[in-house]
Design goal:
- The complex is a heterodimer of chains A (481) and B (521).
- Chain A is mainly α and 481 residues long.
- Chain A has 19 helices and two strands.
- Helices cover 73% and strands 1% of the residues of chain A.
- Chain A has a two-stranded antiparallel sheet.
- With 521 residues, chain B is mainly alpha-helical.
- Chain B folds into two domains: 274 residues, no CATH class; 246 residues, no CATH class.
- Chain B has a two-stranded antiparallel sheet.
- In chain B, a hairpin with a 4-residue loop joins strand 1 and strand 2.
- Classes of the chains: A mainly alpha (481), B mainly alpha (521).
- At the A-B interface, helix 16, helix 17 and helix 19 of A face helix 5, helix 6 and helix 7 of B.
Chain lengths: 481, 521
């Protein structure tokens, strides 16, 4: 019998609140209280965050470590909830335009998926981690396919489901092998029992990296990403690119540092290679894309490579904190970018033809607000100061230097030049057309909530740049609880 | 007076902040209110110019070290701080920046499309440029250095010519390759400082104390020097410059040539010399060779150009070759000449690009072969063009002469052959400049169809008056400017470990010690 204490419920509260919000929204749909959808979603998310903030404390496990609300959960959980909130705002009233024919399911599935993401980053038990992983993934598979009448959407969903199931299976197999080698599913116990240089545990580690590499789209496990990101409705892509990646990276980092630190020498080399490969493939492939979403998909692959640099250098230095900061900034800039693309497509019935980069022609002049948010997001993704993306790269590079990976930094720096090229290409289209040459795009009608979401993302990218040092310290201290 | 202390402490911050505020206001104004935006931009840039002059007046040339310093912690846990300060060189460059920016803003009505955004970009760019010239923290410097890139990119890309997209991307990518490697080097140096002194710092003066291995120093110097050499541009890395200049709108070219090209050399003097003295000293001959190549190559290519804007662009490469040469000889004359020539080039090439802009505005052509006999219809234009050309080819009594003379003198002291080779650039300069002038201005009148040839209007006169005045004043009486540059040049020399090579009688134009003493009393 598992010992149950009332205090454990407090640890469970963020998940309960968020799930309750989803259920209430489903019921509200039953009574046709449509207008309150967004309100429910936002307030549920905010309440979950408050509970997370109140109940997270150093090294306090509930349900025998099944739920583990510590500093790492607080950091990644907060990013996940913030990203969820912004993507709910961005998607509000936009789904029909995106070919999504359903009712409230979109929001409910996003929230449930975020519950899964939250579980992933707040458990110290591999089985719970797998459950969270699956809850999150299943919701996202459905979300990808929600634009039922669009071929690309259905294709993306099926591809994602099949490949995703494979990766889940690999992950689960890894869990099983770890259990076989160490006799435990608790990270702390695994870490103390890890046998050195044991083929079994190395295989398990490999399978683990495979599974997570798939979810965070590290090359060569990235092939699904462009199709899925392009096929899914833009609001869902924004959600996926932010929430799924944060959750997977958060859990990945916790397992690597929590359980496999004794084997660091073997996975560091592997991650080094994967990170270089990911940056190169992501950036090179993005150069020649014609579809905005596909280009941003490759860019999100490339960014996974930069985050991985932080993990590589996290063993000796402060790489963990810089990775977390990178994810924090990344989630807002990627939400800003996809959100702006979504807003630009608003009001058009044929969004899948409008996916071309050229469809953004003149956007900077016809819709200055969207243009500015998109520019800020892109320039930040490109790593230009004083935006958040610059300091995110700066910190990652710095920790990599401290750990002696100077070569990695130089490769990453040169990669950023490639990135600059394709991000600026979008700005070329947005701003550089002569007004008489460019088909004037009528200013899209963007719902107020969407504007709020865009403004929030843009502001946060700017703010995190200017106060980067402070937030790096906060993240570092919280992660060390 | 408390006011004085306050002013001295934050004057530089105001100088950076003022154009930024102006840019925000202009960007937020509705696009249709172009005239209002013009007035706002003009008043902000003139206010900035006044503050720049105030800085010049208040600056005390006989005091060593940085003045008007301000230090605000930005990210203390990482050793990154907002640190600004100026010496004589930066003061001159800041004044040049604010002057050229104000003139470009005044000349802005020749831009017909989206003028509000154009003015916003110019003011934003101005803030970045002033920031570059006063930043003393390397991260802050990098922030300004890169932040400048975007408005310049937009200026070329939105208001440029036919191949503007190509030119704008090329400009950004060339710069970015250099600067990202420089970023890696900055991060590495910050890390090394923390290793050696136990706390992180990106402050320039702290970094002079760094102990670096020779190989390490050479590599890091290489990363910095590459970024700066691309910006100057030194000859094998120059190919972005003609494209950017030709495609940029007139105002963009003025700023690009007048200010942005100075940043490379400024960076070498300000950052490379104190942090990597040995590598710098070792690379001196390399700079001399590259400088001479630049002088001759730029001049020869300029000679054969048919596009007058391209001609001015290549002449820039030649002039900056002189600056690189003056830097590379590492004696006081060469350095002082290089610094002065940075200023002079800003004035005369800025004016030349303005003139080309005037011509293009009238005729929508820049081909020299399209024009002839312009002096008949545009006498004032021809006069201004002649004065500026003469300054550009360094005729005595114009500003260009003083600078090039000092550089050649320094080069002669260093290596007579270098001076001889460089002098050929002066001759070639006269050849290409004067032959272009002859073809444009004399002979039978000729202009492209549809051209509306009329002489300078009031706005254009306002632009050229201060530039011509500076050409003459610095040409006739350069002493105040040279006084400003004396200490920065000496400081740079003393930072290089080359005491053996330079005789101690480092003063050609006055006795520094005495002046410093006088100033203290």
């Amino acid at each position: 019998m598992i010992g149950f204490q009332p205090s454990d419920l407090a640890q469970l509260s963020p998940f309960l609140v968020l799930t309750a919000a989803a259920v209430v929204m489903l019921l509200a749909e039953l009574f046709h209280v449509f207008r309150l959808r967004l309100l429910f979603g936002i307030s549920g998310t905010a309440a979950a965050w408050l509970f997370l903030l109140r109940n997270a404390r150093p090294q306090d496990a509930a349900f025998r470590g099944m739920i583990f609300l510590d500093g790492q959960s607080l950091v990644f959980g907060s990013i996940i909830l913030a990203a969820l909130m912004i993507s709910l705002l961005l998607g509000d009233k936009q789904h029909a335009a995106q070919g999504v024919t359903s009712g409230v399911e979109v929001e409910v599935l996003q929230i449930l998926s975020a519950v899964g993401a939250l579980v992933m980053v707040s458990t110290a038990n591999l089985l719970m981690l797998f459950l969270g992983f699956e809850l999150m993934s299943l919701c996202v598979y459905i979300l990808t396919g929600l634009a039922r009448k669009e071929r690309a959407s259905a294709e993306g969903a099926l591809k994602y489901f099949i490949l995703g199931s494979f990766s889940s299976a690999f992950l689960l197999y890894g869990v099983v092998l770890i259990y076989g080698a160490c006799g435990s599913l608790q990270l702390a116990e695994i870490s103390s029992r890890v046998p050195a240089d044991n083929l079994l545990i190395l295989t398990a580690l490999g399978l683990f990296i495979f599974g997570f590499g798939f979810k965070v789209s590290l090359a060569p496990f990235h092939v699904w990403t462009p199709d899925v990101y392009q096929g899914a409705p833009a609001a869902i892509t924004a959600f996926m690119a932010a929430v799924v990646k944060i959750a997977a990276f958060g859990a990945f980092a916790r397992v690597l540092f929590g359980a496999f630190l004794p084997l660091a020498s073997s996975w560091i080399k592997l991650l080094w290679v994967l990170s270089v490969l990911t940056m190169l493939i992501g950036n090179l492939a993005a150069l020649r894309q014609q579809s905005v979403k596909r280009m941003l998909a490759y860019s999100s692959i490339a960014h996974a490579g930069y985050v991985a640099i932080g993990l590589v250098s996290g063993v000796q230095g402060s790489g963990y904190a810089s990775s977390a900061f990178y994810l924090l900034v990344y989630s807002f800039m990627t939400l800003g970018a996809f959100g702006a693309v979504l807003a630009a497509q608003a009001g058009s019935d044929a969004q899948y033809d409008r996916d071309k980069i050229d469809s953004l022609a003149g956007l900077g002049w016809s819709a200055p607000f969207i243009g500015v948010v998109l520019s800020i997001s892109l320039l930040s993704l490109a790593g230009l100061p004083p935006l958040g993306g610059f300091f995110a790269k700066f910190f990652v590079f710095r920790t990599a230097m401290e750990s002696g990976y100077t070569g990695l930094v130089i490769i990453a720096a040169l990669n950023s030049v490639l990135g600059l090229y394709y991000y600026l290409r979008i700005m070329v289209v947005m701003y550089f057309g002569r007004s008489h040459e460019v088909r004037t795009v009528s200013a899209p009608k963007v719902p107020a909530a969407s504007c709020v979401g865009l403004a929030a993302a843009g502001f946060l990218v700017l703010y995190l740049g200017i106060s980067a040092g402070h937030w790096l310290e906060v993240l570092g201290n919280t992660l060390r609880w | 007076m408390p006011f004085d202390i306050d002013l001295a402490g934050s004057l530089l911050t105001v100088l950076v902040g003022l154009p930024l505020a102006g840019a925000l206001i202009v960007f937020l104004m509705p696009q249709s209110r172009e005239n209002a935006a013009q007035w706002v931009a003009v008043s902000f840039s003139l206010a900035e110019l006044c503050l720049g002059v105030l800085l010049l007046v208040r600056f005390q040339a006989y005091l060593p070290g940085y003045q008007f310093t301000q230090h605000i912690d930005w990210m203390p846990e990482l050793g990154i701080a907002y640190r600004v300060g100026v010496d004589g060189l930066s003061v001159l460059l800041i004044v040049l920046t604010s002057l050229l920016s104000a003139l470009v803003v005044i000349a802005a009505p020749s831009v017909r499309e989206k003028r509000g955004a154009y003015l916003g970009c110019l003011l934003f760019l101005e803030a970045g440029m002033v920031g570059v010239f006063c930043a003393l923290d390397l991260v802050l410097f990098y922030v300004f250095w890169e932040a400048m890139l975007i408005p310049m990119y937009l200026l070329i890309g939105i208001w440029g010519g036919e191949r503007r997209v190509y030119a704008a991307l090329k400009f950004v990518l060339f710069t970015a390759i250099g600067s990202l490697l420089m970023l890696a080097a900055i991060i590495y140096l910050g890390y090394r400082y923390e290793q050696q002194f136990g706390m992180p710092s990106f402050y320039l003066s702290d970094w002079s104390a760094l102990q670096l291995g020779l190989r390490e120093e050479v590599l890091l110097f290489g990363a910095f020097a590459l970024a700066f050499a691309i910006k100057i541009p030194v000859v094998p890395l120059h190919s972005w410059l003609p494209d950017a200049h030709v495609e940029a709108p007139a105002g963009g070219s003025v700023i690009l040539a007048g200010v942005l090209l100075k940043m490379g050399l400024y960076g070498l003097i300000r950052f490379c010399v104190p942090v990597f003295p040995e590598a710098c000293a070792g690379a001196g001959p390399l700079f001399v060779v590259l400088g001479v190549i630049g002088i001759v190559f730029g001049a020869l290519v300029a000679w054969v150009q048919d596009d007058v804007k391209k001609l001015v662009a290549y002449s820039s490469i030649s002039h900056l070759g002189f600056c690189v040469l003056g830097f590379g000889v590492f004696n006081v004359w060469g350095l002082k000449g290089a610094m002065l020539q940075m200023l002079n080039h800003g004035i005369s090439t800025g004016a030349l690009f303005f003139l080309v802009g005037v011509l293009y505005d009238r005729a929508h052509s820049r081909r020299i072969a399209d024009f002839g006999g312009l002096a008949q219809k545009m006498p004032l234009f021809a006069f201004v063009f002649l004065s500026v050309s003469l300054s550009s080819i360094a005729l005595p009594l114009t500003n260009g002469f003083v600078g090039e003379f000092l550089i050649l003198f320094g080069a002669y002291r260093f290596q007579p052959y270098a001076a001889v080779a460089a002098v050929s650039g002066v001759v070639l300069g006269a050849v290409y400049m004067l032959s272009a002038y002859r073809r444009l201005m004399f002979g039978d009148f000729m202009a492209p169809n549809g051209a509306q040839i009329h002489d300078l209007n009031r706005r254009e006169k306002i632009v050229f008056v201060p530039l011509l005045a500076l050409v003459l004043v610095i040409g006739v009486y350069p002493q105040p400017v040279l006084d400003l540059l004396r200490l920065p040049a000496q400081q740079t020399i003393s930072q290089l470990s080359t005491e053996g090579r330079n005789p101690p009688e480092v003063n050609i134009l006055g006795d520094e010690e005495r002046i410093i003493e006088k100033g203290r009393n």
